[in-house]
Specification:
Chain A is of the alpha/beta class. Helices cover 38% and strands 17% of the residues of chain A. The two termini of chain A are 27 Å apart. The mean pLDDT of chain A is 95. The chains are: A alpha/beta, B alpha/beta. Chains A and B meet through helix 6, helix 7 and helix 13 of A and helix 5, helix 6 and helix 14 of B.
Amino acid sequence: MSADVIVIGAGHNGLVTAAYLAKAGLKVTVLEAAPQVGGAAVTREFVPGYKVSGAAHLLHGLHPTIARDLDLARHGLDLKAQRVSTRSLLPGGQSFEVGTDANSIAAISRADAEAYPAATARLGRMADALAAYALHTPPRPDVAKMDWQSKLNLGKFAWGLRRLGKKDMLELTRILTMNVNDLANDYFESEAVKGLLCFDGVLGLALGPRSPSTVFNLLYRLSSLGANGQGGFLLPKGGMGSVAQALAKAAQAADATIRTGAAVDHILIEGDAAAGVVLSTGEEVRAARVVSNADPQRTALQLIGPRNLDTMFVSRIRHMRMNGCAAKVHLALDGLPEALANARGRVVVAQKPDDIERAYDCAKYGRVADRPALELTIPTLSDPSLAPAGKHVASIIAQYCPYRLRETSVNDARHQIGERSLAVLEEVAPGLKQRVTAMEVLTPHDLEAQFGMTGGQWHHGEITLDQVLFLRPAGQAQDYRMPVPGVYLCGAGAHPGGNISGAPGYNAAREILKDARAQKRVMGAA
Amino acid sequence: MQQSYDAIIIGGGHNGLTCAAYLAKGGEKNGANKLKVLVLERREKVGGAAMSEEKYPGFTYSTCSYVCSLLRPEIFRFLDLPRHGLQVIPYDINSAPNPEGEGIIYYNDHDRTRESLRRHSIRDAEAYDEYAMEISRHCRFIKRTLLMTPPDPTQLNPFVQNRINPWGHREDLDGLLRIGREFGRLGERHMYDMIRFWSMSVADFLDQYFETPRWKGLAAASSIIGTALGPYSPGTAYVLLHHYMGEVDGQIGAWGFARGGMGSVSKAIASAAEEAGVEIRVNAEVEKIIVKDGKAIGVALKSGEEIYGKSIVSNADPKRTYLKLVDKGDLDAIDPDIHRYAKNYKIRGSSGKLNIALDGLPEFAGLGKESAYGTIDIGGDFDYIERAFDDFKYGSWSKRPFLDCVIPTTVDPTMSPPGKHFMSVFVQYVPYQLAEGPWTPEMKAQYEKDVLDTIELHAPGFKKLVLHVQCRTPWDIENEVGMTEGNIFHGELTLDQLLFNRPFPGMGQYRGPFDNFYMCGSGTHPGGGVMGAPGANAAHEMLKDFKRGVVQ
């Protein structure tokens, strides 16, 4: 069996790459170890009759260009679904909602209600300006070696920054490296509003609100809520698996082959270049180009293997920070407590910055947070098909549950993060515990085992300033090409990074096509 | 209104004095336009935080700053400081005691350090070569930016004319290109490392090279001194450079003691300034900067006296300058954002100081006698320092603090009676205010006890040697020296407050919001440490403005 291109892993980025390559006329085979496509973008039945998005549960980053190019609406993805707002639950039955209802902030703080729209709009503008680089290949830092395309992209990018105006531009240079706690203090006065901002700054990181670089993570998140994403949070109908299904259909419609249950053992390298892959069954699948949707560490250290790479590159990849810190808690509920009865959107429980900071302190020393910060959705409120009639599921992201545990065993950690998340929730939504009929907890170790992401880090490497742009996954490999000719990286471990955006897959496809065309020209000339 | 001075400098710290000396000499070329300069100092003598004082009979304490290395050699030479009595005695050793085993010793000499590391880990010893190479690459790059006015990336158009540049200028563009060229020289491979280095945490950085926990803790020390960050916080790696970018007598990376305490540095600069014609008035506290029609025209002293000058320079930190010395109304008339910038300026004090008179030389656990001749860093691994930071985060002093100790009397007998010693203990972390409220005498006593207990743990028998302790919190330092919140750098040295953003976005070129108003303290580029660079750089910009006729 052979193909032009093999894509290892049918995660959403792998499917995007496959679809674009197939559309360009290449013969593409996607090999997926799991019995279904999607990787971490999957809808799973965790208790008979109850289904939930396995990892990410809110869609916001899917790049509109990709949705349009691949015509995902035609392939069954409903992006017109209503945008949902974010509600922060506070003790004593209080809560406030952002985005839709400024009055609810006013009940907490009048000054913050006034400041909030302007502050988020300003941050949004900056995030949009930065996100303009999402669909470009990161440049080489050496101007002398930069190609004209990068120069053009950088020029446009700089122009976009310039258009922010001098004040915003200077503010951006100030806040870019800052910690989100300081930013929250600069902008707001109430602990509750600050807490929500801080939560968005640390989500997906093994850092606390007082750690520098968390504002960058906030901007990264905001960028997907603007013109370079879906403009808000969506709860996809049928769970996150429906996104993967639509992408798979788009790829198949362009004649890509998808094989599930085909685990790749390693990449076949002949004469210092990719020749195909070897499956765990021993079967060889040959192709001149192999694209890995796996994370950078898995790709370099397992699929390619250190002996095929130079030590510098191996060392850089080894030191990529992949300490997953978020656990996923799934609840089967036989009803909803009053506080959550209408929680159609995103619910955050992070009452003040110091709560999050203390939760992080635990993780810093390898323990599960005593009082985790939570993001929760109840998808059954908008899509009842996910649970038996009258029943509900709750999908919770709980931070922090570190991958690098010190004295706690994985089993204890799983138990602790589940119980502690429930305890925190019970405070703001009394009566929830009694409604729980079944619970599933996925610690970073479980996420690693289920979805193959090293460290259970669902961005395939934390989104911090030292791991983005041309440092992602590592210097001199930022153009989606791995050091072995013919091997590419298309997952979230490449620029621009995580979230269900498809952008790394899109960029990787462009670079692969560039190489394929160049080769064709050479062959043609010969 | 009589303008008797070309420049009035508020504050006689080392930067104020350096700025004064440069102005009075008319810049490095000993130019034609030598200015008439007045320095106003609140206290009874100049020096600010570079000060020697006798707080216990027979002992000279370096009350705040305590070691010397960063003072730019260009300034040292130009002001001819040795002739004015400054002698810096280099020391060679930096060590970490270990109550549970052998301590760690770092030498200035590369090979000796490697040999010393070999006793703990052969891998670390081998990695040390690679590590030292990377560090010196970063140092070479950063050093070239120290004595340079940071270019403003929003002002690159060479044709824009404004008050300061009536004919347009290309200094910002040139500056940026110069930095770009330096960067280009690194070669692509090292470019990635450098950019990463600027944003990563010191723990991540050192983990790439080393495995011995206590050695990593010692190496991380210089990147957390004076900061409100822990070793696991991103953005701490580059602060390491502070340890390596200095020099003593041309010996790169060396540190030294100023003979007679750090006050000798200020004294020598003051002497150089006075020789150049600078007038220094002590006991002259400035209360307000007088602004008229958006122009700084003079200062009002606490005594009621008003002094007018062509230009006003503040050596005080940005927060004190813009929130206390300047009227909010005057600021708002220029731009209401400036007041907000000043309010949001990050200047958390995080360090305390204990000055101790000792009856004899203490011995440190796991170290030989030679270690007393240099810096002794009492701490442990990353976790030790991070836990000290955790205490501080929530408004308490570190119960087990990280301590940077020196005993300058081992090489400088002028500071104590024979056989006795002065020990300077820099305490990290101590908050400006406690979570429960302001410092009380009981709290301070407890803090002092915690520090002494920590030393005793690493130097058994230490407490019996103690003759006198001067214990200071950031609050004390603010009240004595005037640095807001006792922050030793006049504002945190995080990336958001460096270069053209120091002190505030858009004001990174030593000019204040008013005409004829300048900043010359550590709150401007390149920041804190007894470096003198902000003072010298500010003087350069001012002389340019005088020459262009912007200041009249």
